[in-house]
Amino acid sequence: VTWDWHVKSPAASHALEPFMLLSAPWRLGLLFLIAGAACQGLLARRGLLGTLKDRSLRLLLPLLFGMAVIVTPQAYFEVVTKAPQLLPGNGGYLDFWWAYLHGGTYCRGQDCMDVPTWNHLWFLPYLWVYAMAGAALASLRLRSRAVELLTWAWLLLPTLPLVLARVFVMPHYPSTHDLAHDLYNHLQYGWLFALGWASRTPLGQGLWAAALRLRWVALGLALAGWALLWAYFTRYANTPPPVAVLTAQRVLWAGLSWWAIVAACGWAQIAFRRDSAALNAASAAVFCAYILHQSVIVVLSQWLKPLGLPWGLEALLLIALTAGVCALVYLALRRVPGLALLLGVQRRRHATLPVIGSAVTSSSRPS
Asked: Quick one: three-class SS letters along 231-250?
């Protein structure tokens, strides 16, 4: 795509941008919602100290290792492609890595990058903070009453904080992925994490059943919202929109982000109703793949660049090769205890989400 990123392909095309927009509003939000539900289940099993230990080992250790080792190629190739004159020593990777670990700033005009950096691993410190806050609040054992919402209300009420954040906060405090200065992201992702947590308690126990019942409606709303968003970005690609239209787009973005999450949660209960070997394997590998994938993409993109491939072929190769490399690394290292922990390999799968159905009654783009 033509959007700004760490490295760019000479074959970048607008053709893939509608598909990127299809998931951009909601994919990280879904992760935070699921993480909230999982963290509540962890606290119920292991208590406050057990949760602190588990989340610190599984989030902070991969974060530190990732910043020191996994993310370094991203920073290196970003400097190579944008400001090679800033490379230390002879411009080689090892010289850069040494300088990277000692910290510093690389600037090209007003565009600066501080190192070490966490890039795509920003999800980990945010999740750790939310998990600690949730566990601390839950340990106070405050009384809470069951909240029963009409099924359709699950499509609307959870969007309100997202709409308010998108319309009133994001224009003044845009996304930074800087843990200490990222008000907009804390509002949206903190809210979704809290919703996921509440879905395992009386406060939000109806969410999963509602998602199952509303999956078709939510999917339709999400797809309609996506089409309208793409029409908006196409129409106003080169001209500023009227204020009312811009505000409507931000409301729609927030709505789409929630409707897509509801649809995903509903359809997942249909697709993954029963355990399977494939599901268990994917569950164990997915966090490792998340940690690795962006660096693998960056390195492979630079390897493919001299071939001058058409954008479609290059995109397909990048997807296939990235999946293959992540799978191979996981398979090679999953039984190496130290490295497995540093790469986020799950030793076993816990059933952290409610099973809906027969058991339902048992309880980057733009502004």
From this structure: HHHHHCCCCCCCHHHHHHHH
Give, in order, the Cα–Cα distances in Å from 87 to each of 4, 80, 105: 21, 7, 11
Q: How far apart are CA 352 and CA 44, in angstroms?
A: 10
d(CA 60, CA 129): 10
Residue showing tokens 């960056």: 298
Backbone angles phi, psi at 37, to 5 degrees: -65, -40
What Cα–Cα distance (Å) separates residue 123 from each residue in 66, 146, 190, 206, 357?
A: 12, 30, 12, 27, 31
Alpha helices in 56-103 (DSSP H): 61-65, 72-82, 93-101
Phi, psi of 241 (to 5 degrees): -80, 160
How far, in Å, are 264, 269, 334, 357 from residue 209 at the CA level?
Answer: 13, 9, 35, 8
Strands (E) in the chain, as ranges, are 104-108, 111-115
pLDDT along the chain (367 residues), means of 10: 77 83 96 97 94 96 98 96 93 96 92 94 98 93 76 95 98 97 98 97 92 98 98 95 98 98 97 88 93 96 92 93 97 91 76 40 42
Asked if 160 and 251 touch (Cβ cutoff 8 Å), the reply is no
Residue at 85: amino acid letter: Q
Q: Give one DSSP letter per residue of 151-208, joined into a string.
A: TTHHHHTTHHHHHHIIIIITTTS-----TTS-HHHHHHHHHHHHHHHHTTSTTSTTHH
Residues 170 and 247 sit within 8 Å (Cβ to Cβ): no
